[in-house]
Amino acid sequence: MVVVLFAGTFMTALNALRSTKSAILSEGKKGVAEMATRLAQSYEVEMRTRAPKDGTPGQLPAEVLARLSQGVLEEREGMVGGYYWVAGQRLASYAYPANEGVQEGEEASFAVKPAVLEVAQEAVRTGLPAERVFTGLADIIVLYAVPIQTGTKPTASAWAMMRLSGLPVSNRLRAYLEAFGLGLASLLSLVLTLVVVRNLQRGVQKIEGGLELLEGDLSSRIDAEGDPEEIQRIAKAINRMGMNLKQGIENEKQIENRMRHSERLAALGRLVAAVAHEVRNPLATIRLRVQMCEEDAKSTAVHESCAVALEEIERLNGMVNRLLSFAQPVQLHPGPTELGRLVEQRLAGFQDKARHQGVNLVTSLSEDAGTVNVDSSRMAQVFDNVIQNAIEAMTDAGGTLSVSVAPVVAPEGTRAVCVEIQDTGIGMSAETAGRIFDPFFTTKATGTGLGLSICHELVRAHGGEIRVTSKERMGTSVRILLPAANGAAANPASR
Question: Residue 171 pLDDT > 80, yes or no?
Fold first, then answer.
């Protein structure tokens, strides 16, 4: 836009200059001076060729002067000219090529004769070219005379005259209007430039402020609505960059956390396997001895004590089995499974316990969830553990346990099935929720801290993920995401 206005301003200025009085006058003066000089040169050339033969020195016959005048002046339309003789103080052989033709005679008679005589005489007297300009209401007359040197001093002069009528009142008005247009275009260009510069400065300041905010918070966004299109594109690119950086950092943190968790599990697995093997053999011997003592005992009190001891031994033996299961690599036998039906079956086993503790079960099992390729027995173990924890978190005053199964789109853009188990229990702090999957970490008085850790490993072994969000006195939500059996890329319109 600025370039267009500048080009228009330049062309307007050029046309205005061409239409001004000074430009027309300068061009007219140049043409008149050229004609007068050529008349003088023609006279001098003719004198040099005729001087030895003709009469009075410095004079040529009238018919020769007429021929010279006509030959020069006919090349320029509207030009008038001729010669002046000092002898007799008169003009001779002037010409009007555009109207009256060549006037032959001893004396010229026309309206501007006094002015022509004055200029011609001045050129002879001073020996230098003379010029006069007469300005009228509708035209300009330019007179120019050149001395002719035929001896020691000038004895004649050649003159030319032209009436400039290229600056009528209408052209002056046009010049004024074009000058006004020039000023207006310049003003508009300046205003537009200032507006563009101001908008760009405001946009740049907004981008600088947005970049400063991004240094502290990658989730911040630059709002460039209403700014120039270029600023909006830059702002959108910066917003995308911030979002991508934030996502990349979060992914790196998740990968680091998973690697640390895997390393801890591997180390603990080796330790647990060694301890479990060392404990299992002595524990079997103790159980055998207690059983023998129970058979030989005749006292009722001894029988009761042996029974209690055997119960504790069985509990310890179950713990050892869980430790060995934790230490062993996960072995899966996947097959097509409807998660909605599997979850419904697992909830049925907790109906009595939930009713006894005042917990209301609410389900939302979508029929469009489809199937997943999982080991149903292993996933049943995961669901049982999470459901039991949720019910136990609401033992004091009861509550609501909501379970939903629905199809979703995974962050990678593939189809997945989400199982969400949400309770209204006591909840957890952010610190506790961050350690919930660590082995041997528990908030229960009788817990081993292996339940959710094993669940985490089982879900990951199925190619899924499990996430826990919780607030104290607000409840806990566990989301289990598993890839669908036909986990092709999802339609972007369905996200």
Answer: no
Residue type, 26: S
Tell whether the model's pLDDT for residue 404 goes beyond 70: yes
Greater confidence (41 vs 171) lies with 41
Average pLDDT of the segment spanning 54-80: 74
Q: What is the CATH number of domain 248-327?
A: 1.10.287
**Residue 88 in tokens:** 């007799």
Q: Report the DSSP beta bridge partners of residue 374.
A: 335
| pLDDT for the residue numbered 110 | 56
pLDDT score at 490: 43
The total number of residues shown for the chain amounts to 495
87, 127 contact by CB (below 8 A): no
Q: Which residue has the higher pLDDT, 264 or 335?
A: 335
User: Among 89, 45, 42, which residue's Cα sits nearest to residue 67?
Assistant: 42
| CATH label, 2-170, candidates 3.30.450.20, 3.40.190.10, 3.90.550.10, 1.10.760.10 | 3.30.450.20
pLDDT in tens, 432-467: 888 887 777 777 766 667 778 888 888 988 889 999
Contact status, residue 5 vs residue 31, Cβ threshold 8 Å: no
Residue 467 near residue 459, CB atoms below 8 Å: no
Domain ranges of the chain: 2-170, 248-327, 335-494
Cα 83 from Cα 155, distance rounded (Å): 11
The torsion defined by the Cα of 109, 111, 113 and 116, in degrees rounded to 10, comes to -140
CATH topology of domain 335-494: Heat Shock Protein 90 (3.30.565)
pTM, 2 dp: 0.44
